[in-house]
Amino acid sequence: MLPGLQPRQKHDISRPPPPRCGGRGNRQREGGAVLAVVIPTLNAAAGLPGALGSLGPGRARIAEVVVADGGSTDGTQAAAEAGGARVVAAARGRGSQLRAGVAATTAPLLLVLHADSRLGPGWPEALPEDGRAGWFRLRLDDPAPAARRVERLANWRARRLALPYGDQGLVLPRALYDAVGGYRDMPLMEDVDLVRRIGRARLVELDAEIATSAARYRRDGYWRRPLRNLACLSLYFAGVAPERILRLYG
């Protein structure tokens, strides 16, 4: 269980969320806890404890942890509650799950984290303080040299093109999230859609790493998987519906 958090019960998103709190005053609530962590899940019981455990160093700043679940059948919800998170039931699809998860929180700063990712040392100190959004440098949990190549390409894409993916995490003020319209109900590319609306000027690289599962790369190949991801991104920029791209993504 994440230190300082107690097991929570499943929450029905059909109920209206509590009133949102915003502004400078929230930085003092709960002894400085200003961060809402939102994790979308679908049958993620194996990786979720690691993601929740990596939040430990920042527990003094965390006000709430919400797992937005899309209908898991593998014990994900139990793992979330055991780790101190509150479970929100949401329509399946990362965009809709993230939108529901954020709506169920109130803290003024958001951290979006994938269930198969783990925040690295120093992440609490790296959080942006200037009103901008931020992403973490990607690290894959595989010692293979091919994994280092994928990391370099991913971090180059985020740094030079201002296109970090969801597996690099995203930290942003709630005010900025609301100003750009938040996550849209998309099954795929919800991360790219949001960071494009945030814009390069309001997006910064954070001085910490995030370790993400390399399972897809090991399964599909360290050449094939990146090429498939690039094809999906190209189709999205060409205007192809995310629902169609999802079939290629796999």
Number of strands: 9
CATH topology: Spore Coat Polysaccharide Biosynthesis Protein SpsA, Chain A
- By CATH, the architecture is named Alpha-Beta Complex
- The average pLDDT value, as a whole number, equals 90
Rounded to an integer, what's the Rg over CA atoms?
A: 17 Å
Summed up, the helix count is: 10
**What's the N-to-C terminus distance?**
32 Å
Report the β-strand fraction as a percent range. 15-25%
Sketch the major β-sheet. 6 strands, mixed
- Would you identify the regions where 5 or more consecutive residues have pLDDT less than 50? 3-31
What would you say about this model in short?
The protein is built from ten helices and nine strands.
Draw up the topology in text:
Elements: E1 11-12, E2 35-41, H1 48-53, E3 62-69, H2 76-82, E4 86-89, H3 94-103, E5 109-112, E6 117-119, H4 123-126, E7 133-140, H5 145-161, E8 170-173, H6 174-180, H7 190-198, E9 203-212, H8 215-220, H9 224-237, H10 242-249
Parallel strand pairs: 1-4, 2-3, 2-5, 3-4, 7-9
Antiparallel strand pairs: 5-8, 6-9
Helix pairs in contact: 9-10
Question: What would your notes on this structure say?
Answer:
The chain is 35% helix and 20% strand. The chain has one domain (11-139, 164-213): Spore Coat Polysaccharide Biosynthesis Protein SpsA, Chain A (Alpha-Beta Complex). It is globular. A 6-stranded mixed sheet has the order 1-4-3-2-5-8. A 3-stranded mixed sheet has the order 6-9-7. Helix 9 (224-237) runs antiparallel to helix 10 (242-249). The two termini are 32 Å apart. With 250 residues, it is of the alpha/beta class.
